[in-house]
Amino acid sequence: MLSIIQAAGWPIWPLILCSIVALALIIERLYHLRPSLVAPATLLDEVVGVTRANLPAADVVNKLADNSVLGSVLAAGLRSVIAEPRISEAALRQAFENAGRAAVHQLERYLNTLGTIAAAAPLLGLFGTVVGMIEIFGSQAPTTGGTGGNPQQLAHGISIALYNTAFGLMVAIPALMFYRYFRGRVDEFQLGMELAAERMVPHLMRFAVRAPA
Questions:
Q1: Quick one: which H or E segment has residue 158?
Q2: pLDDT tens digits, residue range 92-122?
Q3: Where are the domains of the chain?
Q4: Staple partner for 76: which of 20, 30, 49, 99, CB 3.0–4.6 Å?
C-alpha cells in the first residue's frame, strides 16, 4: 500500500482524506438510519393504544420523544394537544409538519457531505492525472548532457496519472452508491412519518375541546 501511495505522488493525499471521511460518514449513517432508531414498526400502534382512552402523562410523552425519530414527531403532536386543549386541526397538522421537517433534517445529516465527496473524488483524480501528464511532458525535456528524456520521471508521471484516476473512481463510486441508498431510506422514512401523522391527527382531535358555536 505504501508503495502505491509513493507511486501515486502527492495528489493522492486529498483522495485518501476523502476516502476516510466517506467511510466514516457511511458507517455513521448506517448506524443512525436503522429502522429501530428511526421508525420502529409497532410504535404507532402502541401510541394509538396508549392514547385510546386519555392523553398520557408528561413523562410518558418525554419517553416517547426519546424513543426514536418517529417518536419525537408523535410526541410533538401530543404536546400540542396537551398544551392547547382547544387546538384546531390545522394547528395540529402544523405542529406535526414542523416536527417532521426537523426530523427529516436530522435524517439528512452528513448526506450533502457524502454527495460532495462522490462528486469531487473524480475531479481530484483528474487533477492527479493532470499532474502526472505534466511529469510526463517534463520527462521529455532534454537533459543537461543533451540526451533524450528521463525514463524514471516518465514512469513516475504515468504512475501518478493512472493511480490517481483509478483511486478517484474507487472513492467516488461507493460514495455515490451509498448516497443514493441513504437518500432512498430518508424518503422512505419521511413517507412513513407523514402517514403516521395523518393517522394521529383525527385520533388526537377527539381530545380537543370544541369551541361553542
A1: helix 151-205
A2: 999 999 999 999 999 999 999 999 999 999 9
A3: 2-205
A4: 99
